[in-house]
Design goal:
mainly alpha; Amino acid/polyamine transporter I; 17 helices; 72% helix; transmembrane
């Protein structure tokens, strides 16, 4: 036992020494240039993407009108996750990402595993969102192959992220602003059509919610299956925890942004979905396209299809942009903490982790390859894995928050009033949903996730052994 303990201590000291050298060589520090409004829109940009504009077709076809409850339930669970994240961020202001909030509480193994799971999540999300953007572009460029359009988008997004982080933040602010504005208009117009009617279209009310097989046409199974899409859709709000190292006054900004973003996410998911399933029978919402375009085409409004297609394009580009930021920062901090090759722990003159960025970007081209073979189904294929990784991330965040209050510890600043009961409640139901998703999801997606998890665990053991050998040689 004493030898094993010495080995672990030696490995940890070696890792900390390497981390210190990397962080301080040439003053390698991320620039704190992100403001409160940037943080809010970055989180919205990550969450409001293909998941609402395209993925909602899949969730509606799986659960029918009852999918509204899936989005409400998922949003409430996310609220508890975000409150816990905000409290941990205030207690640990030196953290650069939420991985560094978790590791002191749950240990190096958990931090390592979560870091790589979250990186995998975003590189796959980038691929899925890029594939979705190609589908939307094909609305105007019907003769151009999807893989060519995916390639063009990948190159453009890569180029944008090579600039300073404040340029990324400003771009994301306006991209997210476009889709938030249009979703607001969609909700207002949908409300008018539902209650007052418009032109030749009489008010339809809410009769479609129950007239086509009932509110839950596929029962509990359909509702449980839709949770995978819902969790994938909400994934991105925890992005607030990825901006800790580049945010001005994070101890003040993060709690405020955590509260505000969850209410906006719920607003811009639940109300549009309610409008869609109320205006158009759920079984007429094509799982292959966007329900927003379906709604406008069904009520006969001219030229709106092209406009909404443009908005959906900006939405998925925004989510891709956010994904590239998250993946590159996670890989960069993993390298600083000796949990990834040191090669990735270097910043450019603009304080951008360019090596980590380019390595993460390579997965965009994996999406291009999948788009070449999938023939329009790339989004559905790539969406399964991020659904799992998002839930795994939320579960670990809740677990860390549950154990974050040490005996006799006084929590300063922002506190989560529902701790520990609500945190434990959310963790229980998140585990329940995770089990339900495993039982109802496609087998290949489940196997791929657990295979990836096994590879990460094995790589951790190999990395620990290599670190011990370095210590032994010293």
């Amino acid at each position: 036992m004493r030898i094993n303990l010495f080995n672990e201590i030696g490995v940890e000291k070696a890792n900390r020494k390497v981390s210190f050298v990397i962080m301080n060589h040439g003053k390698q520090e991320l620039a704190r240039q992100l403001k409160s409004r940037h943080i809010m829109m970055i989180a919205l940009g990550g969450a409001i993407g293909a998941g609402i504009f395209k993925g909602s077709s899949s969730s509606i076809s799986l659960a029918g009108p009852g999918v509204i409850f899936a989005y409400i339930w998922g949003g409430l669970l996310l609220l508890f996750v975000m409150q816990g994240l905000a409290e941990m961020a205030v207690q640990n202001p030196q953290a650069r990402t939420f991985r560094e909030l978790i590791e002191p509480i749950l240990g190096r193994f958990t931090g390592y595993t979560l870091g790589w799971i979250y990186w995998l999540n975003w590189v796959l999300v980038m691929s899925a969102e890029t594939a979705a953007s190609a589908v939307f572009l094909q609305y105007w460029f019907a003769d151009v192959p999807l893989w060519v359009l995916s390639l063009i988008v990948s190159i453009a997004i890569t180029f944008l992220n090579l600039f300073q982080v404040n340029i990324f933040g400003e771009t994301e602010y306006w991209l997210a602003g476009i889709k938030v504005t249009v979703l607001s208009l969609f909700i207002i117009l949908g409300g008018v059509l539902l209650f007052e009617g418009l032109g030749d279209h009489p008010a339809v009310g809410f009769s479609h919610l129950t007239s086509h097989g009932g509110f839950f046409p596929h029962g509990f199974t359909g509702l449980a299956t839709s949770m995978l899409v819902v969790m994938f859709s909400f994934g991105g709000t925890e992005m607030i925890g990825m901006t800790l190292g580049e945010t001005e006054n994070p101890e003040k900004v993060i709690p405020r942004a955590s509260r505000g973003v969850i209410y906006r996410v719920l607003l811009f998911y639940v109300l549009p979905i309610l409008v869609i399933v109320s205006l158009v029978p759920w079984d007429q919402v094509s799982a292959a396209g966007s329900p927003f375009v379906t709604v406008f085409q069904a009520i006969g409004i001219p030229y709106v299809g092209g406009l909404m297609n443009f908005v959906m394009l900006t939405a998925v580009l925004s989510a891709t942009n956010t994904g590239m930021y998250a993946a590159s920062r996670m890989l960069y901090t993993q390298a600083l903490d000796r949990q990834a090759p040191r090669f990735f722990g270097v910043l450019s003159k603009r304080k951008v982790p360019v090596r980590a960025l380019l390595a993460s970007t390579s997965f965009l081209y994996v999406g291009v390859i999948v788009a070449f073979f999938a023939k329009g189904h790339t989004f559905d294929y790539l969406m399964i894995i991020p659904g799992y990784t998002v839930m795994a991330t939320w579960i670990v965040l809740l677990l860390a928050h549950l154990f974050s209050h040490k005996k006799g510890m006084k929590v300063k600043g922002y506190t989560f009033k529902g701790f520990p009961v609500i945190t434990a409640f959310a963790l229980f139901f998140m585990l329940l949903i995770f089990a339900g998703v495993i039982l109802t999801s496609p087998l290949f997606g489940t196997l791929f996730f657990f295979l990836a998890l096994l590879i990460i665990i094995v790589s951790y053991r190999l990395q620990q052994r290599a670190s011990f050998m370095r210590v032994k040689r010293l």
